[in-house]
Amino acid sequence: MLLPLRISCLSALLALCFLTGSPLVQADDVEESLKFWYRLHITSQAPTEFDDFNRFLYLIDLQARFKDSGEYLFEQADVRTALGYQTHQRVSVWLGYVWRPTREGDTSHFDYENRIFQQLSVALFEHPRFTLDTRTRLEERKDTDCATWAWRFRQKLTLTLPQMIHAKVIPIITEEIFFNLNHPDWVGNQTLDRNRVFIGVLVPMTETVTLEFGYLNQYIPDPGTSQVEHIIYSAVNFSPSRKHIIDAYG
Predict the structure, then answer these.
(1) What is the pLDDT of residues 44-62, one digit of tens each?
(2) Which numeric CATH code is attached to 2-238?
(3) What is the 3-state secondary structure (H, E, C) of the chain?
């Protein structure tokens, strides 16, 4: 238990150092855009009658992402599946796969990415007034048009405030930073891949369903033209076993 917590605390401090990571890379120009992300997130304990298998978890995540202008509004999809194991009440490890089609600009052509990821999720602090969770993820990504695999490290912090507004409206704030660990041609030379900050609310509807709404700011640095994406995010989270795992925007 101590080792995962120490790793996560170190990673959390690293992410906090880059909380305002957007200004770290100066670009000649910045391009801003408005986007809309929609998500269906299903996560639960594996259905079993055997106590020895109650620690196994599964995840199914479907996302559709749109932009606000252009001939083609649909921009990207995200199909994610994963299996997890709860090593401790506050710690879980995951192995998953992602299939991601992404439109090339404003054309009818799509690029396709296959992704394998390993993940460590830790509940760092739990208090009636707030919770702080960390998610550490390593990704191996493969563009179908390129031979080289890209490796990327992601660190995410999630703060929830259950009693700040109302029991049925729970504020949530997340910060996530992405680092490229190698630089294939289709990834580029930037070590800092992107930074995301999310501010939203969770709205419990039933014991198994919660709604999630908010604003996500995504900064993608580039020596030439950096991207700042203003994203309106909404999600339906479903947990058949009533074991909700807070994981804003995926």
Answers:
(1) 887 766 566 678 999 999 9
(2) 2.40.160
(3) CHHHHHHHHHHHHHHHHCCCCHHHCCCCEEEEEEEEEEEEEEEEECCCCCHHHCCEEEEEEEEEEEECCCCCCEEEEEEEEEEEEEEECCEEEEEEEEEEEEECCCCCCEEEEEEEEEEEEEEEEECCCCEEEEEEEEEEEEECCCCCCEEEEEEEEEEECCCCCECCEEEEEEEEEEEECCCCCCCCCCCEEEEEEEEEEEEECCCCEEEEEEEEEEEECCCCEEEEEEEEEEEEEECCCCCCCCCCCC
